[in-house]
Amino acid sequence: MRAQLSSRQGFTLVELLVVIAIIGVLVALLLPAIQAAREAARRAQCTSQLKNLTLGMINHESTHGAWPASGWSGRWTGDPDRGTGARQPGSWLFATLPYIEAQPLHDMGSGVAGRARTDLLKKRDATPLPIANCPSRRDGGPYPYPHGQAALTGNGQGGVIEYTFEQAARCDYAVSVGDETNFDVRCIQISPSDYNANIPGFPPSLDEFSGVSFCGNAVPNRSITDGLSKTMALGEKWVPVADYDTGSWKGDDWAMFVGFQDDTVRSTYYNNRDPDHVPQPDGVTLSSPNDVAARELFGSSHPSGCLASMCDGSVSTVSYDVDAEVFRQMGHRSDDGQPKPSRR
């Protein structure tokens, strides 16, 4: 018998092109959904971190009778041997570390002097803290510290040391000083010779700021008369996209435990000359990104708005289109929700 030969039929070029086109359409349809799902997951993580940071601050208030203070102005950074409140030169985040399961990081250098202390402080300042960074923006680094200014803190023996570092871990969240502006120059500059001195006018009284934390001082819950659920505690700080990892922008150049600077504190202030002083997307191009007004902004890499926590621990999204007066009131702890007509 003659064997029958079977023929094998393959794809034609046209059919192959059709299949490739269909795959391309499916990818184009699925990619935005995948990206949206990833952003939703990152936003959820950012929300959780902001909530846990705020709960840590709430525990600080329960323990010490006040929210964490924001440290001293200038080059001062966290001192592991100076406790909390007006005596602590470091940031609100440094004071919060014991309440977010980061006591070992807080205590690095404690009880040690000389070169050993300096080395531990440099290591501390370069150690990323995952809870302090929004995953939609960046990890904690460490990142370059290009301007090279020396930091100041206690030497563990009642005096002061200066030390320099090359790498700095950074924080994406800032405490709200309220309806304030030019706040960094309103804080008394403490010189190394005044490290142990009682300085007239420092810390500023609670009447001198409207948020929950300021240089050397912070409020007890009883002073938040607008209500804990109506007063802003923390928010994402605005950082230009191009400077996420450079350390070159003035509002994000120091390590995260530096005291009262725009690296760690921001405001809800606005006036009729600067009506757009509301949260901004990181990708926006500002006309003067190094001006004081820009360095006081809250902002985010999330597409829908900036995440902010209230003093009861709740977290919500503040739209980039939020009314400036509404946002100002969020930051003010005791204005009873009353507008300021002079700002219009």
Q: Percent of residues in helical segments?
A: 10-25%
Number of distinct beta strands: 13
Our measurement of the CA-to-CA distance between the termini, rounded to an integer number of angstroms, reads: 100 Å
For the largest sheet, list the strands in their spatial order.
Answer: 9-5-8-12-13
Notable characteristics:
alpha+beta, globular, 6 helices, 344 residues, 5-stranded mixed beta sheet, 12% strand, 25% helix
Molecular structure report:
With 344 residues, the protein is an alpha+beta fold. It has one domain (46-343). It has helices at 13-64, 92-96, 103-106, 114-125, 292-295, 324-331; strands at 143-144, 151-154, 160-163, 167-168, 173-176, 213-214, 217-218, 232-236, 265-266, 280-281, 299-300, 305-310, 315-319. The longest helix has 52 residues, at 13-64. The chain starts with 12 loop residues before the first helix and ends in a 13-residue tail after the last helix.
